[in-house]
């Protein structure tokens, strides 16, 4: 059964995640306030960031950087800045 939450990123009611996908308090906050749709958008951004910045998830500093970007994106409405990436022009 799906659950509906008010998504902080999308600012609307949306389908919530099925389970906590990230550890700790932050993971709990994501589970309670971020929709499947917003999480999927973040996953795409995260992949681009990992590739762009050549981040290594074994590196604590890199994980911290990624987490800061994630929090800014999901909860503060920030967009992920990826150098050399031009988003498709809006029609």
Automatic annotation (TrEMBL):
Entry keywords, A to Z: Iron
Recorded GO CC terms: cytosol
GO molecular function: iron ion binding
Pfam families associated with the record: Iron_traffic
GO biological process: cellular response to oxidative stress
Gene3D superfamilies given in the database record: Fe(II) trafficking protein YggX
Function: Could be a mediator in iron transactions between iron acquisition and iron-requiring processes, such as synthesis and/or repair of Fe-S clusters in biosynthetic enzymes. Necessary to maintain high levels of aconitase under oxidative stress.
Protein name per the record: Probable Fe(2+)-trafficking protein
Species of the source: Oceanisphaera psychrotolerans
């Amino acid at each position: 059964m799906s659950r509906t939450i008010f998504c902080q990123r999308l600012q609307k009611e949306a389908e919530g995640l099925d389970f906590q996908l990230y550890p700790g308090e932050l993971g709990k906050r994501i589970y309670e306030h971020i929709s499947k749709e917003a999480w999927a958008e973040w996953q795409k951004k995260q992949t681009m960031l990992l590739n762009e910045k050549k981040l290594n998830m074994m590196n604590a500093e890199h994980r911290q950087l990624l987490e800061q970007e994630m929090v800014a994106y999901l909860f503060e409405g920030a967009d992920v800045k990826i150098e050399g990436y031009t988003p498709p022009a809006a029609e």
